[in-house]
Design brief:
It is a single chain. The protein is an alpha/beta fold. The protein contains eight helices and seven strands. It has helices at residues 2-7, 28-31, 49-59, 64-77, 93-105, 123-139, 150-156, 174-178; strands at 19-20, 23-24, 34-37, 111-115, 142-146, 159-164, 167-173. The strands form three sheets. The protein has a three-stranded parallel β-sheet with strand order 3-4-5, covered by helices on one side. Strand 6 (159-164) and strand 7 form a beta hairpin. Helix 3 (49-59) packs across helix 4 and helix 3 packs parallel to helix 5 (93-105). The longest helix has 17 residues, at 123-139. It is globular.
């Protein structure tokens, strides 16, 4: 979680520097090309799902016409199409997790950081998230997934890296193992 926060420019590292897409993590143009779902997210619960996605799309510099088309697409993608006009305060934990994923994806980012994205989801919700992440990878996005659920990591990821005290202690290519 801390590494993701540093890469998002939310926590200042005690040493070194980080770049994403060839630029500083604080570069505004780069930040608009990144999707982020933190572990402990808090949304303005008086907003509807549509309003939340429109807000995040505008913050990421989306053009109005593309945003109007994209919001229903991403609501459908996360299984919340029927709840677009519902206020977030009425959402369950699983629905909030899925709208959080939708806000991270609404602007079709090049890099996506997800911190415990399946938290609070039932088995079908976890499968939905895995399918979405595979589709994002196939679209060409780089997905960084942080999870304590090693089974989810193994099923979802191409590469796994273990970090302890800010240092990489192990790295494994999971695709090579699945081709054996």
């Amino acid at each position: 979680s801390t590494s993701i926060k540093m890469l998002r420019g939310l926590v200042k590292p005690t040493g070194g520097r980080a770049t994403i897409l060839g630029a500083s993590v604080t570069d505004v143009d780069v930040r608009q090309r990144i999707g982020f779902l933190p572990e402990d997210f808090r949304f303005y619960d008086w907003l509807t799902a549509v309003e939340l996605l429109q807000l995040h799309g505008r913050l990421c510099g989306m053009k109005a016409a593309r945003l109007r088309a994209r919001v229903p697409e991403v609501l459908e993608l996360v299984g919340l199409a029927a709840h677009g006009d519902r206020r977030l305060r009425g959402f369950s934990k699983g629905m909030l997790q899925r709208i959080g994923l939708a806000q991270a994806l609404v602007h079709e980012p090049d890099v996506i950081f997800l911190d415990e994205p399946t938290s609070g989801l039932d088995p079908m919700g976890r499968r939905l998230v895995r399918d979405i992440l595979r589709a994002e990878r196939d679209r060409g996005a780089t997905v960084f997934l942080n999870s304590h659920l090693l089974g989810e990591v193994e099923i979802t990821c191409d590469r796994v890296v273990f970090i302890k005290d800010g240092e990489v202690i192990a790295s494994h290519d999971l695709r090579a193992r699945s081709q054996e």
